[in-house]
Fold:
Amino acid sequence: MLISHSHRFAYIHIPKVAGVSISRTLGCRYGTPIDHYWGNWLLKAIGINVNHYAPYRLKKFRLHTPAWILKRELPPAVFADLFKFSFVRNPWDLLVSHYHFVLRTRSHHRSRIAGQLGSFEQYAHYEIGRGKISQSAMLTAADGRLLVDFVGHFETLDDDFAHVCRRIGTLVRLPRLNSTIHADYRSFYSDRLAEDVGRYFAADVARFGYCFDGLAASAIPASAPAHGSFSSLQMAQKNAPLAPWRAGFGRSDADDYDKGSAAA
Structure:
């Protein structure tokens, strides 16, 4: 999570959706310094990297803090005044990128498990069983209300990030950092596995307008009205129809996609 009280924005960092690139690009310019606060550096010295008890401008949040915790921890007027944004990704693509990141990062606490499972299919079912990965859960309240003002798509990253920059009053280039290199995500799926993953991520598929091959034709455009008047887009995303899981993709197509795609 990245918060700038001076520029009045908060970025909800969903893993494997260009978050390192976005956080470093905006954080080095506009992030609110908090590590100098005595409570934060004292906790950091003993290995604790979160502090919800500091004054609200100095609170320290985990890297992937969901929007509902931010709402809980900030004064209502402060939370309402922040321009809150995030980026989402095709869930099938996201899970493949997540798998390769965990597998290659030996320090990751699930790297050994990923290696022992032996295949992406086994890892995918492991994550489905854990039930922890959900983009919708990162961005919504318990009643399903969207808590952020703008949701960009990884598939239209440059255009959507440019919108964010215009909204917060800056113009910066987004580098590609922490990319995970792997074959086209579709080549990792059988029909059965694609259906299993689509069923698990049904909320993300419906809310953010995805089908197996990418953004569905019914996807909500990544544009936002003026800050403070976003209720119509919130409702549209909440009620977006469930897109077909595998529109336009069959088993025979799996080897036709380019290999070596980059996933941030």
Q: What stands out?
A: The chain has one domain: 2-263.
